[in-house]
Amino acid sequence: MGEVKATLIGFSAIVMWGALAVFTTWTGGIPPFQLVGMTFTIAFLLMLGKWLWRGEAIGAHLRQPVRVWIFGTAGLFGYHFFYFMALKNAPAVEASLIAYLWPLLIVVFSALLPGSERLGWHHIVGVLLGLGGCVLLVSDGGSVRFKDQYLLGYLSAAACALTWSSYSVGSRYFGKVPTDAVGWFCAATAIGGFVCHGLFETWIQPETPLIWIAILLLGLGPVGAAFFAWDIGMKRGNIRTLGALSYMAPLLSAILLVVAGQASVSLVLALACLAIVAGALLAAKDMIRRRI
Fold it and tell me: Which of 42, 163, 171, 231 has the fewest CB atoms within 10 Å of its CB?
């Protein structure tokens, strides 16, 4: 598989993550860790369906080295655990902004990969533009204030960003591990989600068809196929381009919320769109030139 095709597949994950906010709002009051358990179970069943459809041995990709299991499960479950801990212990705006440092960290960490090309100024400027657009989106153009009493939440958000960026870039080191193995990582993450749900939450029964549909869509897309596509993008695509493009996720999320009537068009949204798109194009200029 060529780099461009793999990058496009990775970008499809970003597009799917753009629908995460809309689908999540449709789930009503389902607790976060319960939602993690339910949606990642669907993600595993999605891959299980693929194995059964193709007549593949279900346990074929279960046999992975311990370090691969630790890496994969820590990446998927660790990200969600720290993210929800951040939201629980800090205001959503500040926690989200810290958590959204992961695309920037992906670009920076990519310079540490063996045989990596030199990290250019346009990569850094491009991803900083994307971060600036993200700040506008999340804060809605308002002020952001960090307070000492929310330190635990801020640290959890930082751990969230570090976990996902490390998992994403580190996937390149596990290039020989098939993407199908991510299906089993999803199963482990679902178990972790249900365990945390039992420790921290009370079960809420989905009561309407819309809630069940939203959970299903989350498990099939943003929490399912997206992680399989991201694995391909990180292992075979242009990591720096995908890092910069990742800021398209909150932008697409905001646009979908507008379409769904849950947000309104504003100057802040327009400026954020301009910054994120410009940053993505700047960071991806090397790949664009090669195609031209």
Answer: 42
pLDDT in tens, the chain (292 residues): 788 899 999 999 999 998 888 888 899 889 999 999 999 999 999 999 999 999 888 888 888 899 999 999 999 999 999 998 888 888 877 888 888 889 888 888 888 787 665 677 788 888 888 888 888 877 776 666 777 888 898 999 999 999 999 999 999 989 889 999 999 999 999 999 999 999 999 999 998 999 999 999 999 999 999 999 999 999 999 888 898 889 888 888 888 888 877 777 788 888 888 888 888 888 777 666 655 4
Which tokens hold the place of 18? 């753009």
Radius of gyration of the chain (CA): 19
Task: Report which residue type is found at 55.
Answer: G
Q: Three-class SS of residue 266?
A: coil
From CA 81, how far away is CA 102, in angstroms rounded?
15
Range of the domain at 272: 3-291
At 136 the three-state DSSP class reads: helix
Q: What six digits make up the tokens of 175?
A: 């290039």
Given a contact cutoff of 8 angstroms between Cβ atoms, the answer to whether 43 and 227 are in contact is yes
* Cα dihedral: 127, 128, 134, 136 (round 10): -150
118: DSSP letter: P
Q: Which two tokens stand for residue 152?
A: 């635990």
